[in-house]
Amino acid sequence: MKTLMLCDRKSICFHSRDLRALSEKAVESADADVTVFTLNGDELAPCVGCYGCWIKTPGLCSVKGDVANSLSARFIQADTVILLSEICYGGYSYDMKSFLDRFIPNILPYFEIYKGQMHHKKRYECMPSMITIGYGDFCTDEAQIFKELCCRNALNIRPRNQYALTIQGPDDTEAVMHELYTVLLGESRSKGVQ
């Protein structure tokens, strides 16, 4: 099972723990092939709202010179994508949000009713499953807002399956890594991977 893991820069040192390395180990324990990429929001140009990705270069961002298009291609080709992001006021970290803002080429500009709501149509028939792991020193309300945000983003991206996990302090780390491992095993079984 091909897994893409996108991490923010702070994930390498959360309460002296390297969440990126621990997540990678959990993925490898579930016998998945993993590609890890650490995002740097300073190196990703912002979306300029030109809609060229819908009109001029369908499926590709018109802004060139950074890794957004190549990461989007890897995202689409993966079986599972893991997003590892610090929770900032209930939202994604700067690094993660910088990438997700540039993800719009992967949906169509047309609309349809999906689950009783108006959403963009899918560009691709099958999107990978998404596992988002939010971490940080946050309150319960922020964790709930983050999980709701992940769910709302999934309505637009429409992954095969969507999971949102949170790590609130170093004591949660081991349990969440085990949950990640369990989710990945379930994903590989659903894909028929032995």
Summarize, please.
The chain has 6 helices and 7 strands. By secondary structure, the protein is an alpha/beta fold.
Structure description:
This protein has 194 residues and is α/β, with parallel strands linked by helices. The protein has one domain: 3-Layer(aba) Sandwich (Rossmann fold). It contains 6 helices and 7 strands. The strands form 2 sheets. It has a 5-stranded parallel beta sheet, sandwiched between helices. A two-stranded antiparallel ribbon has the order 4-5. Helix 1 packs parallel to helix 6. The chain is globular. It starts with a strand and ends with a helix.
Radius of gyration: 16 Å
Biggest sheet: strands, sense, closure?
A: 5 strands, parallel
Task: Assign the CATH topology.
Answer: Rossmann fold
- Examine the secondary-structure arrangement and name the CATH architecture: 3-Layer(aba) Sandwich
Q: Report the CATH superfamily.
A: Flavodoxin domain
Q: Element order, helices and strands?
A: EHEHHEHEEEHEH
Give the oligomer, counting copies of the same chain as homo and different chains as hetero. single chain
Low-confidence stretches: none
Helix tally equals 6
Helical fraction? 25-40%
Main structural class: alpha/beta
Shape: globular
Mean pLDDT: 94
What's the total count of β strands?
7
By CATH reckoning, the class would read: Alpha Beta
End-to-end Cα distance: 9 Å
Spatial strand arrangement across the major sheet: 2-1-3-6-7
Q: Classify the beta-strand content into a percent band.
A: 15-25%
Domains (count): 1
